[in-house]
Amino acid sequence: MIELDLDRMFSPYVLTGAQATSYGHLAEAAKQFAAAVVERTPPCEDQGVALRKIREALMTAQAALALDGRQHRRREAPTLEELEAILNSNEPVPIEIHPNGEVRVKDTG
Predict the structure, then answer these.
(1) Which domain holds residue 100?
(2) Engineered SS bond to 15: which of 19, 33, 53, 57, CB 3.0-4.6 Å?
(3) CB neighbours of residue 18 within 10 Å
């Protein structure tokens, strides 16, 4: 199960080193795409929405860089031995199956 790390997600983003370089490349690509949208589409509400979404995508990419893919805390996956113990147990064990196929003991606490 994924738990959100809200403190990390809502802290100011500071990019350093390779992150800043990557952001620079992404920002330049976003700028070029935005320029193409302005050049090849008529000025209208849809054009404005397209430009806003390009900006949002860049901002989300910046967050991905700053958070280094760790905006979530993942619980450790159960070991094979733990899963076998559940299967071999005579006691009923409540489980949940996640959309990604992950099987976990249901948290009852």
Answers:
(1) 77-109
(2) 19
(3) 9
With a cut of 80, say whether residue 104 has pLDDT above it: no
Considering its fold, how many domains does the chain have in total?
Answer: 2
Verify that 56 and 87 share a domain, yes or no: no
Inter-axis angle of helices 18-40 and 45-67, nearest 10: 170
- Give pLDDT tens digits for 39-92: 999 999 999 999 999 999 999 898 888 887 665 555 567 778 877 887 788 877
Distance CA 95, CA 63 (A): 33
Output DSSP code: residue 41. Answer: S
**61 and 11, same structural domain?**
yes
